[in-house]
Amino acid sequence: MRRTELAFWIAVAVVLAGLTVPWFLWGSATVVAGLPVWLWWHVGWMGLASIVFWRFAQRAWGIGIESTGDDGSGGKRLDRPDRAREPRTGGDSP
């Protein structure tokens, strides 16, 4: 399960990084609402990347760096406790 999740997030990162620069729009002089279409691409891509990063931070932060040694942790994540058990006290989340 963790390996497939790790592979998924690696693939997402590669796609996000690969399509950051809109190579297919180079040389295009198309203008939408007074701005070049490549600029709209960057605005939209930054919005998408921020949503994906937020989702990654909520679900998979620390994936791939868990301890796998025989330290008694049973392969559990050591970077933070289970979020379901954390009390919600309000304020900013870490």
UniProtKB/TrEMBL annotation:
Protein name (database record): DUF3311 domain-containing protein
Superkingdom assignment: Archaea
Keywords: Membrane, Transmembrane, Transmembrane helix
TM ranges: 7-26, 38-57
Highest classification ranks of the organism: Archaea, Methanobacteriati, Methanobacteriota, Stenosarchaea group, Halobacteria
Keyword hit for Membrane: yes
UniProt cross-references to InterPro entries, sorted A to Z: DUF3311
Pfam families hit by this protein: DUF3311
Organism: Haloarchaeobius amylolyticus
